[in-house]
Amino acid sequence: MTNSIYTTSIPVFKQMLGGLQEVLRKAEAHAAEKKIDPSALLQARLFPDMFSLLRQVQVATDFAKSVSARLAGVEVPKLEDTEQTFVDLQARINTVLAFIEGLEVSKFDAAATREIITQAGTPKEKRFTGQSYLLNYGLPHFFFHITTAYAILRHNGVEVSKKDYIGTY
Fold first, then answer.
1. How far apart are CA 101 and CA 8, in angstroms?
2. DSSP-derived secondary structure letter, 52
3. Splitting the chain (169 residues) into consecutive groups of 10 residues, what average pLDDT does each group show?
4. Which one, of 15, 16, 19, 40, lies nearest residue 28 by Cα?
């Protein structure tokens, strides 16, 4: 029997993070080809009150690792948010991929009904079942940041496509 929480989380995170890696590779190559300072792309944003590309990638990877960890009932690994380059961002994604790939499917056996408690950005806690946490909170936030990273780069002239965004499946 397959574990539906595992199959609707880990493979999705892996696929989309792989797509994000490809989009970032193309952005780095674009900067080199066009002789653009890479920090111009890394600090780009869609609007002044939105996160930069660099921060969008950090937050997307935070969602992938924290949602996966909480669903598996393991401690959420801490990352320091010190990335400054495309190489740094690729390393961060690789770290998160290694973490989620290392989670055993059996850790997700009780994930659908596991109580998940968060305090996202405020002192007010939120309580979810694992299924609700994944489907109504974790995945929407993850996709928002992945999509926004893509949109920042596309808006800035990087030739990326839907195929790059989707990744390998």
1. 14
2. P
3. 87 98 98 98 97 98 98 97 98 98 96 90 85 97 98 97 92
4. 40
Q: How many CB atoms lie within 10 A of CB 91?
A: 12
- From first CA to last CA, the distance across the chain in angstroms is 21
- Tokens representing residue 30 in the block: 């674009």
**Which tokens go with 13?**
């995170």
Q: Which residues pair with 127 in a beta bridge?
A: 117
pTM of the predicted model as reported, rounded to 2 decimal places: 0.95
Give CA torsion, residues 110, 111, 114, 119, to 10 deg.
160
Q: Which residues pair with 143 in a beta bridge?
A: none
DSSP state of 107: G
CA 93 to the chain's CA centroid: 8
Q: Give the ranges where the chain is alpha helix by DSSP (H).
A: 4-7, 10-34, 38-42, 53-72, 86-101, 130-132, 139-155, 162-166
Domain boundaries, the chain: 4-166
Q: Supply the DSSP symbol for 104.
A: -
How far, CA to CA in Å, does 90 sit from each of 48, 134, 169? Answer: 25, 25, 19
CATH class given for the domain over 4-166:
mainly alpha
Tell me the two tokens of residue 105.
């499917």
b/e string for 133-143 if b means 16 or more Cβ within 10 A?
bbeebbbebbe
